[in-house]
Amino acid sequence: MIGPRSATVALDGETSDESGDLARRVVKLERINAALMAHVERTMDQQGGAYALFQTAIMLEGRVRSRTEELTSLMKSLETSNTALQAAKDEAETANRSKTRFLAAASHDLLQPLNAARLSLSALADLAPGHEAQTIAGQVERGLQTIEDLIKALIDISKLDAGAVRPVIKPVRLADLVAHIESSFRPFAERKGLRLLVRAGDVVVATDLVLMQRILQNLVSNAVRYTESGGVLIGVRRRGGQCRIDVIDTGRGIPEEERALVFEEFFRGTAEGEDAGGPGLGLGLSIVQRMATALGHPVQLHSRVGRGTRMSVEIPLAGTAPDVLVHPTPVATTLTGARVLVIENDASTAEALERLLRGWDAEVESHRALAGVMDSLRAGMPRPDVMIIDFHLSDGACGLDVVDHLRQARGWITPVIVTTADYGVEVGRRVVEAQAELMLKPVKPAQLRALLSYLLA
Predict the structure, then answer these.
(1) What is the pLDDT of residue 290?
(2) CA–CA separation, 64 vs 73, rounded Å?
(3) Is the torsion defined by CA of 437, 442, 443, 447 positive or negative?
(4) Which residue, 131, 316, 350, 377, is the most exposed by fewest CB within 10 angstroms?
């Protein structure tokens, strides 16, 4: 039998157990609540970071859009600028071509009266043997020469800058080319007391004969002009698959500060006296640089003040031999009594040339075109000993057509000198292919007489 005390103890035990269980449940709930709160906080943090990233992305997108708009605007401006530049370039090229055509046309009209003046001046000098008359004639001749050189140089530069010069690369034997340059400049060198030496072996190079000849002429002319004592050497050296032509002088040399300027237009050094044809115009090396660039032949300058200068041109060797030109057989030995046929388009030039040739005791027959020659042939004109023919005749005719007709129809293998005020490279090639001699206007009387004597001897 359970008494009241025992019942009380039982109830207290149950109550104690229930309190402990409740406490444990409270603690568990607190832990769960803490876990839930931590989860919520972490979730809030994550949501806050994503939002921040979202905001950053929006900001970057705005910047990218702004930069893209700026870049698009810049590209449009650049495109507009390129269009304007291309238009300006086309306009400049058109103006350059127009300038070249104008100079080519104007040069012919300028050189024709200059040619007549020089021929008439030479004939006048022959008629006036007095010292004073010869002095005046020499002064006029030097003035005409300066005008001629300037016109020629300006035409050359204009054509080279406009790209009108198209080199024709062929095998060229340097020994022949250098020998021609030597014979042309030896009188100038000897007049100054200089030695002109040549060291050229049997080397065949690939180049344009006409342009290469002009390059060497300008280099040797400069070397003689700016050398007061010693001499000038034209040397040719093989270097692997290349050949180097050196023009070396013992002149005063070029100061270092001037070496970058010597290839610019109208830059002139300080030469003593009027040698090598008079004071330079300062265009020779500028033309050399342009021609060498057109040919792809590098030009190098080495100089020491007080010791001299070396100008070098690199040219590739040719794989084949050059064509052999067959020259006509000379038929006379002197200008006295020599029959000369002149076909000249310009009346004043023809009259001056006739007067000059007759002053040299030659027999002259002159015509303006092929029609006059044909009339004279039907009248029994004998074969001339030499012909002097203008390249450009009336109505677009070419003097070489007259040469072809006389060779084919009459079988005349007669020496021919072609004169022209056209300095185009193509004209020179056609004259060479016709096996004729080219003489550019204004014709130098002494040079003409020497060439006539050579052809007739």
Answers:
(1) 84
(2) 14
(3) negative
(4) 131
pLDDT of 180 reads 84
| Dist. CA 232–CA 194, nearest whole Å | 7
Whole-angstrom Cα distance, residue 323 to residue 328?
Answer: 16
Q: In this structure, what is the dihedral angle of CA atoms 276, 278, 281, 286, given to the nearest 10 degrees?
A: 0
What is residue 409's predicted lDDT score, i.e. its pLDDT?
A: 83
Q: How many CB atoms lie within 10 A of CB 432?
A: 16
C-alpha distances in angstroms, 82 versus 32, 77, 78, 88, 171? 73, 9, 6, 10, 43
115 and 443 Cβ atoms separated by less than 8 Å: yes
Residue 172: both structure tokens together: 């060229």
Structural domains in the chain, CATH included, are 169-316 (3.30.565.10)
CA angle, 152 then 422 then 150, to 5°: 10
**Helices and strands, counts by H and E, the chain:** 10, 12
CA 271, CA 284: separation in Å to the nearest integer? 14
Dump the DSSP string for 101-159.
HHHHHHHHHHHHHHHHHHHHHHHHHHH--SHHHHHHHHHHHHHHHHHHHHHHHHHHHHH
Q: Which residues pair with 341 in a beta bridge?
A: 365, 387
Mean pLDDT per 10-residue run, the chain (457 residues)?
44 53 63 63 55 65 74 80 79 66 60 70 66 69 66 67 74 88 85 90 87 87 88 90 91 81 63 44 73 88 89 88 49 69 86 85 87 86 90 83 87 88 81 88 82 83
So what's the pLDDT on residue 206?
92
Number of other residues whose CB lies within 10 A of the CB of residue 321: 9
How far apart, in whole angstroms, are the C-alpha atoms of residue 150 and residue 221?
15
Question: Starting at the edge strand that comes first in sequence, how are the strands of the sheet with 437-440 ordered?
Answer: 363-367, 339-343, 386-390, 416-420, 437-440
- In sequence order, what are the beta bridge partners of 339? 363
* Residue 378: per-residue pLDDT: 87
